[in-house]
Write a structure and sequence with these properties.
Elements (H helix, E strand, L loop, with lengths): L1 E7 L10 H10 L4 E4 L8 H10 L3 E12 L2 E8 L6 H27 L6 H5 L8 H10 L6 H9 L12 E2 H10 L3 E4 L12 H11 L3 E5 L5 H13 L3 E4 L16 E3 L6 H5 L3
Length: 276
């Protein structure tokens, strides 16, 4: 058996630990293969891989791209891609710009509700990319919400009074960009992404046609029935299966850095890891 965690976030997006700190934690928990998959950025990948090499962990370059489909927002993990891909770099620059504009608009809407929150207040909570989790943290700390969860539901989550929708790539484009960068696209936490679980099989067929390489079958919150369904349907379609905990390290977040214990032959490791 082998312990892996192929879905981890750092301070470069919305995680609590720096990339080098994550490598140390993974080593302590005896994780053999790991990937840093920050949201829409690769800024932490190089220091993460360096830390992994120092501790004898097989590190995999990774990213988590948010995308949109008729079924809702889908998150596509990318692995083993070229960090210097010009097209991927351009897409990530567009995401950064759109995220900044969205943050400003959310703060403007909050001020319109009589809530005094500035971008300076929000940025004080971020060590990397600034996003809604940092806005929620500022709302909680300044007493405008009893919890971060409440800040989302009341103000900045979908249906909230200050919610602003995101500008995202179509899922087909997210898969193509990862493929063009030499990477392997994997659908993250698939069943928890869908409003209607019955969409899973037909959507999986479409995603495979788009170039999907694999499916995250062991993921945060998945019970044994969900994991079995993902494994079964992926196997029918010749898709590879991966495992990750979506680790952020925030208080109250149930995902663990220790990852998942799987068979040694779960993936073609030499090809998957790209020799790293």
């Amino acid at each position: 058996m082998i312990r892996i965690n192929l879905h981890i976030h750092s301070t470069c997006s919305d995680g609590a630990f720096a990339p080098s700190e994550l490598a140390c934690l993974l080593h302590k928990h005896k994780v053999a293969v790991a990937s840093l998959t920050d949201h829409d950025t690769v800024d932490g990948v190089v220091p993460f891989l360096s830390g992994c090499r120092r501790f004898g962990i097989r590190g995999v370059p990774g990213i988590e791209l948010s995308s949109t489909s008729p079924e809702g927002e889908l998150h596509i993990l990318g692995y083993r891609f070229d960090l210097d891909s010009p097209e991927l770099g351009e897409v990530l620059a567009q995401y950064r710009s759109a995220r900044r504009e969205r943050n400003w608009e959310i703060c403007e809407r909050l001020r319109g509700l009589g809530i005094s929150i500035s971008m300076g207040d929000v940025e004080a909570h971020a060590r990397g990319i600034v996003g809604r989790p940092h806005i929620a943290q500022a709302l909680w700390e300044r007493g405008y919400a009893p919890s971060v969860r409440d800040a989302f539901s009341r103000y900045i989550g979908q249906g909230g009074s200050a919610y602003v929708s995101r500008s995202l790539l179509p899922t087909e484009e997210a898969i193509r960009v990862i493929r063009e960068a030499g990477g392997l696209p994997v659908w993250a936490h698939p069943l928890s992404s869908l409003t209607n679980p019955g969409d899973f099989e037909p959507l999986l067929d479409r995603l495979k046609e788009m170039g999907l390489w694999g499916v995250e079958c062991w993921f945060q919150g998945a019970d044994s029935a969900q994991t079995w369904r993902c494994l079964n349907e992926s196997g029918k379609r010749g898709l590879y299966t991966t495992a990750g905990t979506d680790f952020h390290g925030r208080p109250g977040h149930p995902a663990k850095i220790s990852g998942c214990l799987v068979r040694d032959d779960l993936l073609p490791w030499a090809r998957f890891c790209g020799g790293l």
